[in-house]
Amino acid sequence: MAARYAGRNSAVVSDGGGSVRMTIPATPFQVQGNSGTSIPCRKVFITQAAGNTGQVRVNIGAVASATVGINVPKGATTAANGPGEQSPLELDISDVNLLNFYSSTENDTVDVLYLN
Fold this sequence. Notes:
The strands form three sheets. Strands 3-10-5-8 form a four-stranded antiparallel beta sheet, with no helix packed on it. A four-stranded antiparallel beta sheet has the order 4-9-6-7, with no helix packed on it. The chain has a two-stranded antiparallel ribbon with strand order 1-2. The chain is mostly beta strands. The protein has one domain: Jelly Rolls. It is 0% helix and 35% strand. The two termini are 20 Å apart.
């Protein structure tokens, strides 16, 4: 029988995790999650910096582009829970390196929080 934490079954409670930040390089303006290095996980939360000038897009398992993938929400413009903050994109996924990001602007950043 699985242990319980705060009323939750341990089979669904994360036992760890971490975060990684990716910076979109110049041409081709694409980057793979964690630069292609495997980080097994169960769930990710994705956001882009509020100061990004391009719109970051993400695709799973294939290259993202201006027309492929979905938009990543922008983070807060001030302190936590500040004005303009959007909820992070939440995905159930087995590895951070399955994520592929695109932006039309060099040096835009993407933050990924992952749960093991």
